[in-house]
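Sharing a chain and its predicted structure for anyone who wants a worked example. Both blocks are below, sequence first, tokens second.
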Amino acid sequence: MHFLRLVRRRGALRRRVAGPPASVACVDRPDADQRAASGGVRLLGPGDIRQIAGRLGIRPSRRLGQNFVTDAGTVRRIAALAALHPDDVVLEVGPGFGSLTLPLLAAVGQVIAVEVDPALAAELPHTVAACAPGLAGRLEVVTADAARVRNLPGEPPTSLVSNLPYHAAVPILLHLLEAVPSLRRGLVMVQAEVADRMSAPPGSRTYGVPSVKLAWFAEVRRAAQVPATVFWPVPRVDSGLVAFTRRAPPPGPGRAETFAVIDAAFAQRRKTLRAALARWAGSAAKAEQVLAAAGVDPALRGEALGVAAFARIAMAGAVACPRPASGPASGPASGPASGPGAVPGAAQSPDAAPGAAAGPGPVPGRGAGAGPHTIGGS
């Protein structure tokens, strides 16, 4: 008899998991104070996320860098630290089950969510309709790889607020800063070590390619630490919040040429600039001549220079070693730059983050928007 009851219960569980979408409970029936703190939006709790994942048959993918935030207090904190304005248009990369999407919708007029997982992208509008029915019209969902996306619906995004995929945070951020010039500021969550690299100053132990390239686009700083325990699955390391504010690039010949110098300098980071830039300039003697013209000591290493110094070297190189133009840079800003002085294989340096996995092309999702917005390239 006990065996039959167990079989029936398991059968009923299978039917519930495989059945039509169930309503999302959203954070354990919050009281009035909790809802007021979240702009009237019911946030997701750990049970909600596991329920949605079970119904969709989703297991977090290491290949896609999926670690989902399950703590409502953490997403409230992120939305608050992002210092958003009601007229902002937020770009969110990797919304997953929608934990962060919900408080963002309560804070701004529009959220454009870019999700590479088709099942999660299709489910997100249902979650928003259940937890924030009055705000569903503010959401646009795009099914795409954020490291490649070039077309977005709606108004141009002004702020990036995201829990970035662990495996490709730097390439995604560099690509978006290059491809979405309307982004004025942002707050992203990444692994703590990656956060250190992104915000490291010249001369520090963690300073490298990500630090310099991000500094080309923006002023970057560490904003907060996030414990591993707020994620599902729980990662082996803590995370960090990194804030950025866009600024004008330093004077120089352009991004592609400057990034070529950066890649060359850090491909052999223990060598002096005279030696590390020899291939880029044509010879060690030519590199020394270019460095002197740029006012940079040839005996220094790349880790001692800020982005403005790399731009001066690129400018001096363009004068001393003119080469035929190779056209505008293309592809993600995180890879080896095209144009004069590009070093084959430079992206394989220890400081270069791995590339992002390819995903499907842009597919507009649900929600009201102002029509397609084409992201301009460099």
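Comments welcome. The two ends are 70 Å apart (CA to CA).
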